[in-house]
Amino acid sequence: xxxxxxxxxxxxxxxxxxxxxxxxxxxxxxxxxxxxxxxxxxxxxxxxxxxxxxxxxxxxxxxxxxxxxxxxxxxxxxxxxxxxxxxxxxxxxxxxxxxxxxxxxxxxxxxxxxxxxxxxxxxxxxxxxxxxxxxxxxxxxxxxxxxxxxxxxxxxxxxxxxxxxxxxxxxxxxxxxxxxxxxxxxxxxxxxxxxxxxxxxxxxxxxxx
Length: 209
Ligand SMILES: C[S@@+](CC[C@H](N)C(=O)[O-])C[C@H]1O[C@@H](n2cnc3c(N)ncnc32)[C@H](O)[C@@H]1O
Known about the structure:
- The chain contains 7 helices and 9 strands, in the order E-E-H-H-E-H-E-H-E-H-E-H-E-H-E-E.
- By secondary structure, it is an alpha/beta fold.
- S-adenosylmethionine binds next to helix 2 and strand 4.
């Protein structure tokens, strides 16, 4: 069982060594008046905790460069920056998510760079200096399956060491995993998080063959 961590005020949560704000927190309510993410990036999703738990057990090297695609509020980036001192870039197509990333990074005293980009359009040159590519709950439409697979292919051929993606278990994600298994050294596992509560999902850990 994890050590009990008292939180400083209501609507603050603690999971995997980072503080998070839930949607009822006054700061989040204020941000939401001004910024309304519109592609599902309006909260922290359970798959991001599954990713944090997986990385806790199958971690990344300290101080590496990593990119999170489809970051939403960026909890996984903040976790990697905090836990592994990773130099994270959080990418999202929807720039309305970035004020939430900034608040979360500030709350946890880490730096996370943000970049507005369509991850399906990231080029090899954008990926070449990254060692890790991560994502949680980013394969939720049919139209994302092939473009995400192509992104991973480009990342691995650009020299990215590992790509780790979690998902609640959507058919679109399994379709993506099948594509990865045909081409790369891809390990798909069921996984669960226990903080801030139990979430179940799937994780694929992909390396070049
Ligand atoms: C379901 S949310 C997951 C957010 C975060 N990863 C989490 O687990 O809390 C999906 C995120 O992917 C972003 N997204 C969707 N399509 C994208 C694309 N083509 N390029 C970049 N970001 C995208 C959305 O804006 C949204 O923030």
